[in-house]
Amino acid sequence: MKKLEFVEYTGRYPNLCSGRLFVKIDGELVAFGDYCLGEKGETDDKDVPVYHSFWVSGGNVSFDDDWNEQVTEGEWQLAYKSNWYPKNIEKLLPRLLKLFNKHVPHGCCGGCV
Length: 113
Prior knowledge:
Blueprint: E1 4-9, E2 20-25, E3 28-33, E4 50-51, E5 55-56, E6 60-63, E7 69-72, E8 77-78, H1 87-90, H2 93-103
Parallel strand pairs: 3-4
Antiparallel strand pairs: 1-2, 2-3, 5-8, 6-7
C-alpha cells in the first residue's frame, strides 16, 4: 500500500475550495489543483507533477427572502473525470480525499452556487 502524507494546502477563505494540495506519495511530492487567488504557499513546486483538483465542497449556502445567508458545512466530496489522472493516481483518490478531509477545514463560501 502506498504511503500518503499531507504537506500543504494553499486554499483559504473566501475561496477555500480553490487551492493547491501538496502530498507525498511514497516520499515523492505531487500536487493537485491551482493556487488560491494566485498566492503560493511555502512548498516549492518546481519540477513537481501537478494534476487537476479532485475535491468539491460538500457544504452549501442558501438564502432566505431577506438575503440572510445560511452556510452549511460538509465533508469534501470526490469530483473528477477519469481521464484527468494516470491509473496509479486515480486508484489513490479515495484515500487522498480522506487525507484532504482530515487536514482541510470544511465549509462553503457560496461562490460556486
